[in-house]
C-alpha cells in the first residue's frame, strides 16, 4: 500500500493530500530511509513521522484497504512519541 494512503486509512493523518505533502517534504522515514508519498509500506515497517514539534515512531501491524474509525488504531502501534523543547519557554 502507498504511504500516503496508509496514513489516511490508519487515521494517523486525516487527509491524504496532507499525508502526501508531509511525506514529499522528507518528514517521514520508512525503516530509516527517506520516504515519498508513493513509497510502499508493509507489515512490520517502522515509520518516523515529524509533525511540527512532535516526532512519532510507529510500527505497522496490519494493512487493510478500508477501515472504520474504531478499528484504525489496530493498524499500527506507537513505539515512541517525543516533543522538541520550545526554545521560547522560560524567556521573560
TrEMBL record:
SMART domains: S4. InterPro entries: RqcP (IPR025490), S4_RNA-bd (IPR002942), S4_RNA-bd_sf (IPR036986). GO terms for biological process: rescue of stalled ribosome. GO terms for molecular function: ribosomal large subunit binding; rRNA binding; tRNA binding. Pfam families: S4 (PF01479). PROSITE patterns: S4. SUPFAM superfamilies: Alpha-L RNA-binding motif. Keywords: Protein biosynthesis, RNA-binding, rRNA-binding, tRNA-binding. Key component of the ribosome quality control system (RQC), a ribosome-associated complex that mediates the extraction of incompletely synthesized nascent chains from stalled ribosomes and their subsequent degradation. RqcH recruits Ala-charged tRNA, and with RqcP directs the elongation of stalled nascent chains on 50S ribosomal subunits, leading to non-templated C-terminal alanine extensions (Ala tail). The Ala tail promotes nascent chain degradation. RqcP is associated with the translocation-like movement of the peptidyl-tRNA from the A-site into the P-site. Associates with stalled 50S ribosomal subunits. Binds to RqcH, 23S rRNA and the P-site tRNA. Does not require RqcH for association with 50S subunits. Belongs to the RqcP family. This is RQC P-site tRNA stabilizing factor. The gene is rqcP.
Amino acid at each position: 500500500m502507498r504511504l500516503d494512503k496508509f496514513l489516511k486509512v490508519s487515521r494517523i493523518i486525516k487527509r491524504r493530500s496532507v499525508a502526501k505533502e508531509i511525506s514529499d517534504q522528507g518528514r517521514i522515514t520508512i525503516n530509516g530511509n527517506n520516504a515519498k508519498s508513493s513509497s510502499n509500506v508493509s507489515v512490520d515497517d517502522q515509520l518516523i513521522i515529524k509533525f511540527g514539534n512532535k516526532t512519532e515512531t510507529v510500527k505497522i501491524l496490519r494493512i487493510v484497504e478500508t477501515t472504520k474509525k474504531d478499528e484504525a488504531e489496530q493498524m499500527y502501534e506507537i513505539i515512541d512519541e517525543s516533543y522538541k523543547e520550545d526554545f521560547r519557554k522560560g524567556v521573560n
